[in-house]
Structure formats: structure tokens, C-alpha cells
Write a structure and sequence with these properties.
The complex is a heterodimer of chains A (252) and B (323). Chain A is of the alpha/beta class and 252 residues long. Chain A contains ten helices and twelve strands. Helices cover 35% and strands 28% of the residues of chain A. Chain A is globular. Chain A starts with a strand and ends with a strand. In chain B, helix 3 runs antiparallel to helix 7 and helix 5 crosses helix 11. Chain B is globular and about 60 Å long. Classes of the chains: A alpha/beta (252), B mainly alpha (323). The complex binds adenosine-5'-triphosphate and magnesium ion (MG). Adenosine-5'-triphosphate (ATP) binds next to helix 1 of chain A.
Chain lengths: 252, 323
């Protein structure tokens, strides 16, 4: 369980995460939605201790993220950020290997090697494993970063817009993969998504943020409704029932 | 064999060849053109060789480590004003204590004191730069330039108001070059470089992770603040050693570090660091030998290195800007 109490983050005078209190249950997929600048990425950075909290408290399974040792947290929680740039010139395999660092501290065992191959296979990267990251397309690179995070093999995995740059097939594959990780491996997945239809079809729980606060939260049935979405995004939505899922259109 | 393994093998083979070349250059340097009295020439050249090797090592390692904490491939400690800071510390000490007191103190003790002050101030001044607060490379370069100019102007000011006798002592220490190495400092330099290397070796597993950037390093459980501080301490010691021995050398580190990344094609520190050190040793010792023996120039090495390195820095900046 990730418990967030009164988390606040300011940049100068601007409050970007404003006293958020939220409990993300263990297991399943929680999706965070909300307009640009709502504070979604900032909240994920706070949870994963990449940014210091200005006030409030966050705990992962009871481990306070401020006082718990960083390497213990790294074996429990991992994050894929929205934009990933590297100065070092790495191959896909080099990158994925780094996912094992919290466990192996740089000395890879045979078991680590298996996890690495597994992660590469999961993301359909075997043929690209020895290519340098700067020789890949945007979507291939995105998959390499996801493979690294999965290779870290933590109970809690946070993804900030993991579908960035992916084509339809790979987007669906990615969401199915995350679903499988949640149901079969018992992982807790938290995803920031802009595609509400993916959120609607795959989430167990949706959190809608706007202006640095949690505006709504609940099951897809609670959130994927024209009135709620309009309040969050300030634009009009049509919601359709299709094969038991709620599908949203907002194009015209 | 998996390609990553064969890549490591290739890197190791490359390092072995470079190391052999380095040893050969050192042997040439010691023996070429020796006429007559070996027992006089060998210790003389040996001290000079040792100084050059220490300087090469210090500059190469400090630059690679600096690029790792600052997460870019364009900056080096000297571009960020580290050696100007060291020169300022030396100037301040002579200014406050007076030349007489400074010359009376054992140079080794003096060096250790300067080094301690250097560690303190470099952590104080530079750590915040890499704590995630400053993201843009341009800001970093600007801060480095401002620090460098500030330190140099302040040293310059003190040198103007200082007692002329004190200034002569100071000048001796500030304008060291490859040809006027203080042999008294070799022992303690060796000791400090050894200590710093041991320290760096202790944190070496986290170095590769640090080069992925602050956020990724934290995500992988590295205590970024602590490791950054430790790397800055190592850099401060190494810069003190090289600056005390031969004075400021601005672009050399950048040159050898970039060569190492280019030629070794393997981002792991256990390959990049030795490669950079070996390139630095070969170019310093080889360069000095060629200039001394072939052209009979005695003082030009520093100038040649700065010229080539400076050109290279401009090329890097332009290439980075074009991207
Ligand atoms: N380093 C920073 N300095 C100042 N303001 C910042 C900084 N980082 C983010 N912000 C501001 O904080 C707010 C929240 O940003 P955040 O990245 O969390 O938004 P987001 O919900 O992830 O948006 P998006 O959907 O566009 O990714 C934005 O208004 C942004 O301008
Ligand atoms: Mg975002």
C-alpha cells in the first residue's frame, strides 16, 4: 500500500501538488489521469523520492520514503519517468542490466542474467538487445526503458506515460503486459495515462488530478462519465458502452 | 559468445595494448639520449617521469569522475574553476601567513593543509550544482566561468597588494610547470593520489549508475547526495595534486576523457577510467619526450596541450550545439 498524507510541493510561489492525501491499494492497476500541468508527474516523483517533499508524508508498505534507506526502497519501488535522456552511450542490454543494480550492486549473478533475458523477451527486444539506445526509434527506446524498470522486479512499479511513442499494437501489448504483471505476479502498478480509453479498459482504480489536487477517484465506472471528465479536463466527452467497456470520444 | 561479453574482451585487449604502449613510452623517456652518468640522469628523469604520471593520472581520473557527477561530456574540473580555486587558496595562505611563515613550514604539511581547505570549499561551492537544482548545461558552464573568473581575479587582486617578497615565493608555487616540479611534493602526492584512488575504488560500483543521471541513480537506490560528495572530495584531492605539481592545465582532461569514451566504446568506468589515464600518460610523457629530444624545446608542452585541448573544446561545444 502506498499511503500519501498531505503531500505538498511548491516551486517558488506556485503550489504544484497541494496537500494530496491518497491511499493506493496494493495489487492491481491504478491510473492517474488529468490535464497537462495537473501535477501527475510531480506526484510520482514525490512518491519515488526523486523530488523532496515540502511537507506531508509518504510511505510504501509502512516504509517512510524520507527515512528508509534508499537501496531498500529501490528493491520495493521503481519508476519509469516521462522523459529519459542519457549522456552515457549504452546498448539496450546495458540499460536493462542496470535494473538489477539494487539487487546485485553491479555483480551480476546467473539469476540476474535470466531476469535480464526475460525482461528483454517480454518487451520484444531480443533482436535489438545489442543496439545502442541512440540508434533506436522513439518507441523502441521507450520499450527498452520499460524493460529496465521491469527488470528491477519491484512490488510497486510507477510508470509515467509508458505509452509515449508506442504504436497501437505495442500500446496494447504494453497494457496487457502490465495487466499480467499485476494479476500474475501480484505487482502494484501505478500509471499516468492521457489515453482515457486505456485507463477505462485496464484500470482497477482511477485517480483524476487537476490543479495539484485529487479531483475525483474511484472505479472506471465512477470516473469515466461525461460530467466527471468534463469537470477534470474542461472539454466535452461522449461515453459509449462497447463490449462491456466504457469508451470515450472527444474528437468533435 | 554474447556480444556484450565480446565487447568487454575487445575493451580489455585495447587496454592491454595501450598499457604496453604507455610502458614503452616511459622506458624511452628514461633512456633515450642518455650519455655518460646514468646514476645522475636516471633519478633526475625518474622524478620528472613520476610527476608527469601523477599529473596525468590525476587529471584523467578527476575529469572522468567530474563528467560522471555533472552528467555531461563537456565540462571538466578546470573549466569549472577547480584549479583556480586551488590557486586562490595558495594565494590566501601566503597573503595571511606571509612568505616567511609559509617557507618555514614543511611543504608537505602546507600541501596537506591546502588540500584540506580545497576539499572543504569545493564541496561547499559545487555540491549544490549537482543536487538536481541546476539542469541546464549552459547554466553550469556559466557558473563555472563565473567561479573561475572570480577566483582568478581575487587571486590577482591579492597578488597585487601583497608584499613583493611574498609575491616571489608565491610566484614560484603558482607558476609551476612540467619542468619545475617540486621534488619534495612527489612523496605526499603519491600518497594522496593513492588515498583518493582507494576512496574512489570503494564507491566504484555506484559510478556507472551515477552516470545515468540523478533520477535514475536514485531510482536504483544510490544515495546520490552522499556519492556526489565523495566524488567531489576525490576530485578536490586530485586537482590539488596536479595543480600543486604543474599548475593549472585547463583542457587536457577534457581531451583524454573524450578520447577514452570515443575509442573504448564501452561506458563502464572500469574501462573508461584506465583508458583515459593511459591516454593522458602517453600524451604527457610522449609529448614531453618529443619536444625535448626532437625539437629541443623545454617549456612548450603546456602550451601545445592547451592549444590542442582548447581547439577540441570548441569542436565539442559546436557539435553539441548543432544537435
Ligand atoms: N522544475 C520546475 N520548476 C517550476 N515549475 C515546475 C517544474 N516542474 C514542473 N513544474 C510545474 O509544475 C506543474 C505540474 O507539472 P507536472 O510535470 O507534474 O505536470 P503533469 O501533470 O505531469 O503534466 P503532463 O501531463 O504535461 O505531463 C506544471 O505547471 C509545471 O509547469
Ligand atoms: Mg507529466
Amino acid at each position: 500500500m502506498i499511503s500519501i498524507e498531505n503531500a505538498t510541493k511548491r516551486y517558488g510561489e506556485t503550489i504544484v501538488v497541494n496537500g494530496v492525501s491518497l491511499t493506493l491499494p496494493a495489487g492491481g492497476i491504478t491510473t492517474i489521469i488529468g490535464p497537462n500541468g495537473a501535477g501527475k508527474s510531480t506526484l510520482l516523483s514525490l512518491i519515488s523520492r526523486l523530488l523532496p517533499l515540502d511537507s506531508g508524508m509518504i510511505a510504501i508498505d509502512g516504509l517512510d520514503i524520507v527515512s528508509a534507506p534508499s537501496d531498500a526502497l529501490a528493491r520495493r519501488l521503481s519508476i519509469l519517468r516521462q522523459d529519459n535522456t542519457m549522456t552515457a552511450r549504452l546498448t539496450v542490454r546495458d540499460l536493462v542490466e542496470f535494473g538489477r543494480y539494487p539487487h546485485s550492486k553491479g555483480r551480476l549473478t546467473a539469476a540476474d542474467g535470466r531476469k535480464i533475458e526475460e525482461a528483454l523477451a517480454y518487451l520484444d527486444l531480443q533482436t535489438l538487445a545489442d543496439r545502442f539506445l541512440d540508434e533506436l526509434s522513439g518507441g523502441q527506446r521507450q520499450r527498452a526503458f520499460v524493460a529496465m524498470v521491469l527488470c528491477q522486479d519491484t512490488d510497486y512499479v510507477l510508470f509515467d506515460e509508458p505509452l509515449n511513442n508506442l504504436d497501437m499494437k505495442h500500446a496494447v501489448t504494453m497494457m496487457k503486459l502490465l495487466q499480467k504483471a499485476a494479476t500474475e505476479l501480484g505487482k502494484t502498478i501505478v500509471i499516468v495515462l492521457h489515453d482515457i480509453n486505456f485507463a477505462s479498459c485496464y484500470s482497477d482504480h482511477i485517480v483524476a488530478m487537476s490543479n495539484g489536487t485529487v479531483a475525483f477517484q474511484g472505479t472506471p465506472d465512477d470516473i469515466v462519465r461525461p460530467d466527471v471528465l468534463q469537470a477534470v479536463y474542461d472539454t466535452t466527452f461522449d461515453v459509449h458502452e462497447l463490449h462491456g467497456n466504457r469508451i470515450v470520444t472527444y474528437f468533435v | 559468445m554474447p556480444p556484450s561479453l565480446s565487447r568487454n574482451r575487445a575493451s580489455i585487449r585495447f587496454l592491454v595494448i595501450t598499457a604496453t604502449l604507455c610502458v614503452a613510452v616511459c622506458i624511452f623517456f628514461m633512456t633515450i639520449g642518455v650519455k655518460g652518468n646514468w646514476s645522475f640522469i636516471l633519478p633526475f628523469r625518474g622524478a620528472k617521469l613520476l610527476a608527469m604520471l601523477l599529473v596525468a593520472y590525476s587529471i584523467a581520473v578527476s575529469t572522468v569522475l567530474f563528467q560522471t557527477v555533472s552528467n555531461n561530456r563537456i565540462l571538466s574540473p578546470s573549466i569549472m574553476g577547480f584549479d583556480a580555486l586551488y590557486a586562490l587558496i595558495q594565494t590566501c595562505l601566503v597573503f595571511t601567513l606571509g612568505a616567511q611563515a609559509v617557507t618555514a613550514i614543511d611543504p608537505r604539511l602546507m600541501f596537506a593543509v591546502e588540500c584540506a581547505i580545497m576539499i572543504f570549499f569545493s564541496c561547499l561551492l559545487y555540491r549544490w550544482l549537482f543536487s538536481g537544482a541546476v539542469r541546464s548545461l549552459h547554466t553550469l558552464i556559466l557558473v563555472g566561468l563565473i567561479f573561475g573568473i572570480l577566483f582568478r581575479s581575487f587571486s590577482g587582486f591579492l597578488q597585487r597588494v601583497i608584499d613583493p617578497n611574498d609575491f616571489i615565493v608565491l610566484q614560484d608555487r603558482l607558476f609551476a610547470s612540467f619542468n619545475s616540479v617540486d621534488p619534495n611534493l612527489l612523496g605526499i602526492s603519491l600518497l594522496m593520489v593513492g588515498g583518493a584512488s582507494f576512496f574512489a575504488w570503494r564507491i566504484s560500483p555506484s559510478l556507472d549508475v551515477m552516470s545515468l543521471g540523478r533520477e535514475t541513480a536514485i531510482n536504483l537506490g544510490v544515495d546520490h547526495r552522499r556519492v556526489t560528495t565523495m566524488i567531489l572530495v576525490v576530485i578536490a584531492i586530485l586537482v590539488s595534486v596536479s595543480t600543486a605539481l604543474v599548475g593549472p592545465v585547463t583542457f587536457f582532461g577534457l581531451l583524454v576523457a573524450s578520447l577514452a569514451y570515443q575509442l573504448i566504446a564501452n561506458a563502464k568506468h572500469r574501462f573508461v577510467l584506465p583508458a583515459a589515464v593511459l591516454f593522458a600518460m602517453i600524451s604527457l610523457v610522449g609529448g614531453q619526450m618529443i619536444l625535448e629530444r626532437l625539437f629541443a624545446f623545454d617549456t612548450a608542452l603546456g602550451i601545445v596541450i592547451e592549444f590542442v585541448g582548447g581547439l577540441f573544446f570548441i569542436v565539442l561545444l559546436i557539435r553539441k550545439g548543432a544537435r
